[in-house]
Amino acid sequence: MPRTDSYFQVVGDLEGLAAAVDENVALLPDLHAERTELAEGLTKLKALKERQRSFAAARQATTQELRKAMADNRQVAERIRDAVKFKIGRRNEKLVQFNIAPLRKRTRKPAQPGPSEVKI
Q1: How many domains are contained in the chain?
Q2: DSSP codes of every residue in the chain
Q3: Cβ within 8 Å of residue 11, ≥6 positions away
Q4: What is the rounded CA–CA span in Å between residue 93 and residue 85?
Q5: Could you read off the pLDDT tens digit of each residue along the chain, which spans 120 residues?
Q6: CA quadruple 12, 17, 21, 27: dihedral positive or negative?
């Protein structure tokens, strides 16, 4: 058996081994129990791989639902914040509680003398 974690290589090797045992059943009559165990193992392996694929599909669908729910909730939050701004005013400092920056007066920078106003 190859030393690999590749699903396809392992399954291919196990199926080849099962086929070889089936072809040489006359030479290997005492391997019936092991052959049955191998067949059950392959069936379980394939079922697990199929389950993994369905989980991947479910994960993708869940991710899409999650993104849609986030977008919907962002719109609701935006409507709530717009209503809050309307109700309490755009300059109210309580807006900070709602994660909204209130409108504030701009501070003036001190006037710097221009090149013609420089005293020598």
Answers
A1: 1
A2: ------HHHHHHHHHHHHHHHHHTTTT-GGGHHHHHHHHHHHHHHHHHHHHHHHHHHHHHHHHHHHHHHHHHHHHHHHHHHHHHHHHH-TT-GGGGGGT-PPP-PPPPPPPPP-GGG---
A3: 42, 45, 46
A4: 11
A5: 456 778 899 999 999 999 999 999 888 888 889 999 999 999 999 999 999 999 999 999 999 999 999 999 999 999 999 999 999 999 999 999 988 999 988 888 887 776 666 565
A6: positive
Per the structure block, which two tokens stand in for 13? 């090797």
Domain residue limits at 97:
7-103
Q: Domain for residue 108, yes or no?
A: no
The pLDDT assigned to 44 comes to: 95
CB-CB contact of 85 with 97 (8 Å): no
What distance in Å separates the CA atoms of residue 84 and residue 87, rounded to the nearest whole number? 5
Q: How far apart are the first and last CA of the chain?
A: 92
Residue 44 lies in a domain: yes
